[in-house]
């Protein structure tokens, strides 16, 4: 999956590796079992930036996602979360987003 460079940098800088929210705008069902390997790359590059295990996939409001994941959304504050998600995904703040909960996140910055 493609990921936002700011999201990746925030998690890496803060060494956040558990209970991470990989947010997306599409609400399609994820057909993957728990603990399925999940790889992501920085949008606009071919760099595989990290990997993790998929724990769950849920559709959530922005406030529910912030309440569940907090800083593990990849930003410092709820207003920044709304701004970042809306800017990257072009959804509206009252829309639901897909939240892919990841665990055992590994950063692969030199791949």
Low-confidence region ranges = none
User: Describe the biggest sheet?
Assistant: 5 strands, mixed
Tally of helical runs: 3
Mean pLDDT: 89
Q: What percentage of the residues does DSSP assign to strands (E)?
A: 25-35%
Cα-atom radius of gyration = 13 Å
Order of helices and strands: EHEEEHHE
Fraction of residues in helices? 25-40%
Q: Please state the structural category.
A: alpha+beta
Q: Main sheet: which strands, in order across?
A: 1-3-4-5-2
How many angstroms does the end-to-end distance come to?
Answer: 15 Å
Shape label: globular
Number of DSSP-assigned strands: 5
Short summary:
With 111 residues, the protein is α+β, with helices and mostly antiparallel strands. It contains three helices and five strands.
How would you describe this protein?
With 111 residues, this protein is an alpha+beta fold. The protein has helices spanning 5-13, 62-69, 78-89, and strands at 2-3, 20-24, 36-42, 48-60, 97-107. The chain contains three helices and five strands, in the order E-H-E-E-E-H-H-E. Helices cover 26% and strands 34% of the residues. It has a five-stranded mixed sheet. 28% of the residues are buried. It is globular. The two termini are 15 Å apart.
């Amino acid at each position: 999956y493609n990921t936002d460079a700011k999201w990746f940098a925030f998690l890496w800088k803060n060494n956040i590796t558990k209970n991470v929210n990989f947010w997306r705008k599409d609400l399609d069902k994820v057909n993957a079992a728990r603990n399925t390997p999940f790889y992501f790359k920085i949008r606009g590059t071919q760099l595989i930036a990290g990997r993790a295990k998929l724990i769950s996939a849920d559709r959530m409001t922005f406030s529910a996602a912030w309440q569940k994941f907090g800083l593990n959304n990849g930003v410092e504050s709820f207003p920044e979360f709304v701004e970042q998600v809306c800017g990257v995904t072009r959804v509206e703040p009252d829309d639901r987003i897909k939240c892919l909960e990841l665990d055992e996140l590994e950063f692969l910055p030199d791949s």
